């Protein structure tokens, strides 16, 4: 029965998160690789599950890893949202990602599904279900990011706007990359 505590003192107030039931498995596949697996629970309310597994190829110095985070409550990260003026974050996020690192280049494939994600900014309140698929590439030597992906807003409600009482059932697909973003069509019900 192991436990790991993480604390970030770079932000005020400091952020702390505890991991319980931590299991780490390492397997040597000499001379070619080291394989690993990590399983844990995040002590959040309600608890979230985290798992990672992968392989480091010794001769090619290449790392491949998969990561999943299940039903993580976003309110746990509220301390990071506060400096942006975002209040009362709520909802859950499920994330899966694949990571590759070789030759000074990092590639991450990210898939995220948000359930009842809610937050407030100024007088506005947002509640949404959405999905994100993205590819991130980072060249360490050049210190350059390239990215692309899409966000599928299956349902979003916005209230507290100055000139419109509320906007409901917003849905649409937003595509983005390092150059900008675009969308083909957005649908919504607007109430004034």
Structural overview:
A hairpin with a 3-residue loop joins strand 2 and strand 3. The model has no long low-confidence stretch (mean pLDDT 94). The chain contains 1 helix and 11 strands, in the order E-E-E-E-E-H-E-E-E-E-E-E. The chain has an 11-stranded antiparallel sheet. The protein is an all-beta fold and 192 residues long.
Key structural traits:
single chain; 192 residues; mainly beta; eleven-stranded antiparallel β-sheet
Alpha plus pi helix count = 1
What is the percentage of strand-forming residues?
A: over 45%
Distance between the termini: 56 Å
Q: Taking Cα atoms only, what radius of gyration do you get, to the nearest Å?
A: 20 Å
Strands, count: 11
Strand order of the largest sheet: 1-2-3-4-5-6-7-8-9-10-11
Mean pLDDT: 94
Tell me the overall shape.
Answer: globular
Topology:
Layout: E1 3-8, E2 15-29, E3 33-42, E4 48-57, E5 62-73, H1 78-81, E6 86-102, E7 105-121, E8 124-139, E9 144-159, E10 166-177, E11 180-191
Antiparallel strand pairs: 1-2, 2-3, 3-4, 4-5, 5-6, 6-7, 7-8, 8-9, 9-10, 10-11
């Amino acid at each position: 029965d192991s436990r790991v505590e993480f604390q970030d003192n770079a932000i005020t107030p400091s952020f702390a998160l505890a991991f319980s039931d931590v299991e780490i498995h390492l397997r040597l596949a000499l001379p070619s690789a080291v394989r690993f697996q990590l399983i844990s629970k995040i002590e959040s309310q309600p608890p979230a599950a985290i798992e990672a597994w992968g392989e480091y190829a010794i001769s090619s110095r290449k790392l491949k890893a998969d990561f999943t985070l299940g039903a993580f409550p976003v309110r746990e990260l509220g301390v990071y949202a506060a400096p942006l003026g975002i209040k009362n974050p709520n909802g859950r996020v499920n994330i899966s990602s694949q990571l590759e690192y070789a030759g000074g280049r990092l590639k991450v494939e990210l898939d995220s599904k948000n359930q009842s994600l809610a937050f407030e900014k100024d007088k506005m309140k947002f509640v949404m279900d959405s999905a994100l698929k993205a590819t991130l590439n980072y060249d360490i030597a050049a210190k350059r990011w390239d990215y692309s992906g899409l966000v599928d807003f299956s349902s979003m409600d916005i209230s507290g706007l100055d000139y419109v009482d509320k906007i409901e059932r917003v849905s649409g697909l937003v595509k983005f990359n390092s150059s900008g973003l675009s969308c083909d069509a957005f649908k919504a019900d607007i109430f004034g």
